[in-house]
Design brief:
Blueprint: H1 8-23, H2 28-33, E1 39-46, E2 50-51, H3 55-65, E3 70-73, E4 80-81, E5 86-93, H4 94-124, E6 131-133, H5 143-152, E7 166-168, H6 170-176, H7 179-185, E8 193-197, H8 200-209, E9 214-218, E10 222-223, E11 229-230, H9 232-241, E12 246-250, H10 255-262, E13 268-270, H11 273-276, E14 283-289
Parallel strand pairs: 6-13, 7-8, 8-9, 9-12, 12-13
Antiparallel strand pairs: 1-5, 1-14, 2-4, 3-5, 10-11
Helix pairs in contact: 1-3, 3-4, 4-5, 6-7, 8-9
């Protein structure tokens, strides 16, 4: 199911812009080498195991080009696929299929890579109450797809943009003059307020002043050269908060560190790496001519 921020208009705008970028006047190679009436069929094959995401978007790409293209998915968005497995089939006009092939695969590979990375972290959080969040470190123009992929991988969205939550970070504090002033100026704005702190001293100031709903504990976790995770500062921060605010750990969020971070009792873990350091899942489409 689509999240509310993935409206049909926004989705079509993303697809249309991407198609214009790739096709412009059309697929010169396909139109030069293939007879216009040729029909084809193809199989979507996973060349790597992971979590599938972007199938609905890929289908929209093909239908935007040619409503007569038929797609039958053998798996669904958010499902686990095994390397070598066929997860869908397509049939229709050969030129139309080839014109949409690369864009459809690019979208599925990126979204599936994000969903797969998210699922790995979420699985490590099993048994805890800690929720995995994404960030705004997304590909420009593709944010709604990146964040949708996080949901399909089992994670949660932090905020869609700058408009739907107040997040006071160090530059806001510097520009406002102090964290207390920044918090005062967010009063009665009607949005949830989160503030970033980088030390226990700043955290104590936030707790003493009030006005925040959540505190982001930035770089309260350290990982040494040998991969040893130190969560002592985060543990002390969670203890100080004592449930007065929601707590969010950010910085040094790695697969190796996630379990230890969750054991501190922190409410949320946010990871920019889910979307800014994507390993695209290897997917392909093999096409043959219909006899």
């Amino acid at each position: 199911m689509r999240p509310s921020y993935v409206t049909q208009d926004v989705l079509e705008r993303i697809i249309d812009q991407a198609l214009e970028e790739d096709l412009a006047g059309g697929d010169a190679t396909s139109r030069a080498t293939i007879a216009p009436e040729t029909r084809a069929r193809g199989q979507f094959i996973a060349k790597e195991s992971g979590v599938l995401a972007g199938l609905e978007v890929a289908e929209s790409v093909f239908h935007r080009l040619d409503p007569g293209i038929q797609i039958h998915w053998l798996q669904s968005d958010g499902s686990q696929v095994v390397s070598g497995k066929t997860y869908g089939r397509v049939e229709g006009n050969a030129i139309s299929i080839l014109e949409g092939e690369r864009l459809a695969l690019n979208i599925m590979q990126r979204m599936s890579g994000i969903a797969s990375a998210t699922r790995k972290m979420v699985d490590l959080l099993e048994g805890s109450t800690t929720v995995l969040l994404d960030t705004r470190k997304t590909a420009p123009g593709l944010r709604i797809l990146d964040k949708w992929a996080v949901l399909l991988g089992g994670g949660s969205n932090h905020r869609v943009g700058l408009f739907d939550m107040i997040l006071i970070k160090e530059n806001h504090i510097a520009a406002a003059g102090s964290l207390e002033t920044a918090l005062d100026r967010t009063a009665e704005k009607g949005l949830k307020v989160e503030i970033e702190v980088t030390s226990l001293a700043e955290l104590k100031r936030v707790l003493d002043h009030g006005g925040a709903d959540r505190v982001m504990l930035d770089n309260f976790v350290s990982v040494d050269a040998d991969g040893v995770v130190d969560t002592s500062a985060l543990l002390e921060a969670v203890r100080l908060v004592q449930g007065q605010l929601e707590t969010e750990a950010s910085g040094n969020i790695t697969l190796n560190a996630v379990k230890a971070i969750a054991k501190t009792g922190v409410d949320f873990i946010s990871s920019g790496a889910l979307t800014h350091s994507v390993h695209a899942l290897d997917l392909s489409l093999l096409v043959s001519i219909e006899e």
